[in-house]
Amino acid sequence: MISLPHWESSTNTAIVPDHSNIDIPKMGNAVLVPRVAEDADRTASDDTSSQNHFDSSSQLKQSAPLVSKVATSWVSCIRSVLQKQGIGQQAIEIMLNSWRNGTKKQYTSSISQWTSDCKLHNYNPTTPPVAQVLEFLTHQSNHLGYSAIGTTRSALSSFITLDVVNLGDHPLVERFMAGLFNRKPALPRYVETWNPHIVLDYFKSLPENESLELKQLTMKLTVLLALISAQRLQTLKALSLDGMSNTKDSFSFRLLEVLKQTSRHGGKNRHLAPIVLKKYPHDSKLSPVRFLKEYLTRTATLRTSQQLLLCYNKPPGPASRDTICRWIKQTLAASGVNTTVFKAHSCHSAATSAAKLARSPYGGYSGSCWMAFRLCFC
Questions:
Q1: Largest distance between two CA atoms of the chain
Q2: What residues have CB less than 8 Å from 372, skipping those under 6 apart?
Q3: Is 13 within 8 Å of 32 (Cβ atoms)?
Q4: pLDDT (tens digit per residue) in 127-151
Q5: Is 16 left (phi over 0), alpha (psi -120 to 50) or beta?
Q6: What is the value of pTM for the model shown?
């Protein structure tokens, strides 16, 4: 459509009558006639330019991969790859359960950055070229260590195949990881550990169990369990009254949850062996059986959960892993352990190292862990 010209009332564009011949009106400014044609040409040109811009935009949208519609998270990437292989929804849900919750949490962070990078560089996150993967890992290595990059590689390997090879097994990716290790070698957190006698001497200096506040009793029991079992914080959190059995001189806890150490390939060692606590008659302040009996008595009327370790503040709900970690760290600091160096999980290395030095065949593990504790620490 051609727009009509806009007539202005200025002196330059007005129609002025000719008084010499009133019967024949003349146009005072002849420029107005060609201006109509110019406006029409300009309007048609604008319409053509807009149409060309629309066509080019449409072609760009059609040629660019729909990254935002393909995948935006780790789970959506997995689903996209499996659905392309014709796998049903129920089977996909079961396959997603093959990754533990902790692994999913780690992968989600890595893949979130990966999908953002793919969106920025206009690549499909499930079918990228190997050069783009290496470029992404290089960028990540500027602020992450070898172990963190290894986690990112594992996350990408869960759904990316390069040249009919899993991403993690691709020769170029393996060569990249080897070079990164030489640049940023993964060193152990601890090259030495603390002596468990420091904590046990602190426990001996405290009043009898019956005189301790619930906070002190809870924290003391938690650290003693960490030393006796030499287990992870996740395992301590999993201790439950549902899996507890006891005799006059011992307590035993079966682990009813799927833990990090639980393996479907483990055979007899598929699940962790029960944690056994035996009576220690030589010092009542170090006897876990007396500790546990007193703790269960104090918390009997407060319990709303079957989890063994409860928060001592109201409401006394089940303690989280982070809470258990904080209890251990505070107790270690009160005992004199340098907590700026040694974290809560250092109880594992402290217990097993002491067991090895004492030449204990048990190493602080399995149902005989209390025997290892007696040989090493008491």
A1: 136
A2: 351, 355, 358, 360, 362, 363, 364, 365
A3: yes
A4: 999 999 999 999 999 999 999 999 9
A5: beta
A6: 0.67
